[in-house]
Specification:
The structure is a single chain. The protein has 2 helices and no strands. It is mostly helical. α1 runs antiparallel to α2.
Length: 85
């Protein structure tokens, strides 16, 4: 059985703007997730800290917003591909 690590597909459309936007969102998501891990570690030692809980809530909101932006970009690309056939 073959082990496939990735597939590269080329389309006739120019996707550089989309790729830049998605990489930007992915970078922000990674940063937010790293901050969230750090807050979770701190909460293990002090679970009643309301400041940390508030920070965790804000980071989770950021993660949802960033994921929505990524999904919008992917949907835009999907609609462009459908339009091109």
């Amino acid at each position: 059985m073959a082990n496939i690590k990735g597939i590269t597909i080329e389309f006739g459309a120019n996707t550089t703007k989309l790729n830049k936007a998605l990489s930007n969102v992915n970078g922000k998501l990674n940063k937010t997730q790293a901050e969230l891990k750090q807050v979770n570690r701190s909460l293990k030692f002090n679970p009643g800290n309301t400041t940390l809980l508030n920070q965790k809530f804000k980071l989770l909101q950021q993660t949802v917003t960033q994921t929505q932006k990524k999904l919008q970009g992917l949907r835009a690309m999907q609609s462009r591909l459908k339009a091109q056939g």
